[in-house]
């Protein structure tokens, strides 16, 4: 952790550090200690600015100076926390609990080195180059992957397990509490030496040479870990240069690249939610190779003109070993999709395991709710982003001072204003309208009929549902599970906040029998009605996972569609995950989605990565 903080202090362009760890591991203590060892700026000590998780956007970015506006009638800019942190440290404790839009704001400022404010009649741009440090306890919730990627480096911290080391930590803490001044004096020389070394590294880092061979090795490491985008390559290059400067070197060597990889890639590598944090050491060593990174050699003279050149047939005509000319491997032809009743019988009672879960697309409830704070659907909240102002309706709300003044100013002449005073009336009052995110009840209604097993689709369905369950957990939702097969539907899991229980019930879910789709929808409606009575503010999201081929009872398809129309009339937001596959498709799941007034999502597009790939394909 200390090394990551030092490297981003040497080169703030690295993009800051995210410190993840359990409670009581001195995350906040070491960040605050960093300010004491940073070299002074213009003969002033480096400033440590803390951004509280309850801060508002105008406090972070800055806004109009109300004192000047009221006394002199001028709109002047009052700097926010980002500008105050210029050339210092901006520290965010429990950054995972900060509102997402504020995290976006501070990460944009950290990347650009400037803050642009266009609000409250103020239009300014200010420098805001700072060392960004965030700490978080993963037990209290994760950061969105898009925000996680914006932090340059990340480190995992844990309490030491060595009893001798734990005893030494306690001994030093007690010594500090007993006599802080003497304790600080004992380490003053070490702090001075560290401060001087950081200052020297800052001067050196701009002259460190990053060879083409080192850049290629960085790219090979990033490719080996399948990171998305190029931000990882850029961060690794800057981190390797900073580490070389820290070690007093003029050239980046293999050790610098390895250190950069261990700090810049753990939160960017492609992994499943249940994978352990960190990097695969064997894979890293294979990607790094054994040869060190020597400086680029001097350019050699042109090769023999009679020798083979870049355009020779030997290099262009052959394919890459082990690859065919097709872009995708051949697939087995799917079985005939027309014999539904016969297909259900072989799968009766079979249980299929789910594959590794993946990151899913975001499913939301339409409109704006007023429910419990969360991370899924839009909602009116008391602490979210300020999106406007309105007249008070008697239900409370924080006063929007700027809009109140703005509403009162045009009427001052008619009210006989006294110089230096602003006359307000009740009709001038405005309260802030804030928008954030709420948590929802996500109820899964899963088709467990024989067609799912006969088509070898249950693994794909379980994987998709498990991935959506994990997404619901990260967004602080309640989840429930209704299954239907044979001639009945069952509530396999009453709504709960425990994703582990839901995943266990899903894993043991057998598949077989006919498809009582109407009964499944009716059971889901019953559960939603009970939950509406228990928690009326929590808006539900119904996720129906099926191929739409109802087969249980007379007129099964027509009955299921009739129930869907009735359910849509209750106003429940729904999503239909279409599991149909094969060359011959009936499209009944899409028809069901139309009757439900629901979003239609093919099961192959539940993955966020699949959506990106599909969008790229359409744009090509």
Automatic annotation (TrEMBL):
Residues 269-396 are annotated as: Disordered. CDD domains: AAA (cd00009), vWA_Magnesium_chelatase (cd01451). Residues 320-329, 379-389 have a biased composition (Basic and acidic residues). Gene3D superfamilies: Magnesium chelatase subunit I, C-Terminal domain (1.10.8.80), P-loop containing nucleotide triphosphate hydrolases (3.40.50.300), von Willebrand factor, type A domain (3.40.50.410). Residues 441-571 form the VWFA domain. Residues 345-367 have a biased composition (Low complexity). Residues 278-305 have a biased composition (Acidic residues). Belongs to the Mg-chelatase subunits D/I family. This is VWA domain-containing protein. It comes from Nocardioides antri.
